[in-house]
Design brief:
Elements lengths: L2 H6 L3 H18 L6 H32 L5 H22 L4 H34 L2 H17 L3 H10 L3 H27 L3
């Protein structure tokens, strides 16, 4: 693990809560008066964020929680809920040329995401904090590293969408944050290339 990445990574449960907040914020950005290009950018951001989040949970977080012997109904429902969310995301994407139909699909996606978030935050995450304890930091580092891998092929589009979906001065701040992120990723890559272990 890269030492810089280890320092900036939140715990796994903190990262999951941050992802939940980010997704809900993106849903709230989808307002009726939003320009079509800003709306499309927000929808792309939202779909990518949800897909990356689900993959991180499925590859790293849920298996670690299962290793503790946890038999939690919420944990067993998580994969089917993610599968349903992916189906809804594909529906949202397929309706990009039909704004009214897409708005209804987004409403259904938002309901599913809110239900999943409520269940995870009220019972699954507290159970993970109790069962995984100190491992949450290491899991957060692994999730951060995997997030960077998953986001890398989408980085250009994600950066452009972040700027497109942000109004005026906020777009400048977002552009600066994206540039800082690119510099950080470059630094992480260079240090990983120097120390492949």
């Amino acid at each position: 693990m890269n030492p810089l990445l280890a320092k900036i990574s939140p715990t796994a449960t903190r990262m999951i809560r941050m992802d939940h907040s980010h997704a809900l914020t993106l849903f709230h950005k989808l307002e009726p008066g939003q320009s079509p290009s800003a709306r499309e950018a927000t929808v792309r951001q939202l779909c990518a964020a949800l897909e990356i989040h689900a993959q991180l949970e499925e590859e790293i977080f849920y298996p670690a929680l299962r290793e503790t012997g946890a038999e939690l109904p919420q944990l067993e429902r998580s994969q089917p809920e993610h599968d349903e969310m992916r189906t809804q995301i594909e529906r949202v994407r397929s309706l990009h040329a039909e704004p009214d139909a897409q708005a209804l699909a987004l409403r259904d996606l938002m309901r599913a995401v809110m239900h999943h978030v409520a269940e995870e935050e009220s019972s699954l995450l507290p159970a993970a904090e109790e069962r995984l304890g100190e491992r949450l930091s290491e899991l957060g580092q692994r999730m951060t590293e995997r997030r960077l891998e998953l986001a890398k092929p989408l980085a250009g589009e994600m950066a452009a969408d972040a700027v497109r979906s942000s109004p005026g001065k906020t777009a400048l701040v977002v552009a600066g944050a994206v540039a800082a992120g690119a510099l950080l990723l470059g630094s992480l890559k260079r240090s990983k290339d120097k120390d492949p272990a």
